[in-house]
Amino acid sequence: MVTAEMNELHRSIGTLRHHIVKLKARYGDVDAVRRMMNDLDRLEIDLHDFEHAPPPLLKAKSGKDDVIYVPDSKSDESAWLGAQDEGLGFHSRERTK
Known about the structure:
The chain is mainly alpha-helical. The chain has 2 helices and no strands.
């Protein structure tokens, strides 16, 4: 499976490898550089595995479940009687008992 996303990932891995090699040339074979190279190698292996055995595609959502309607009308203030003003930093009304 070759897609634009896969091609871009391969290019990105190549760019990262180039920069890590430059770091290795400048700082030597230090732990941090070895870990970055190891992570990059792992990423390349994972990409290869993904390309040769891709998971099934997700079905597109209808989007209706994502929308929550919040009315603009004034809410019933009696629902808030007795509620505390914690965290607001001010008291917008007299404290309730």
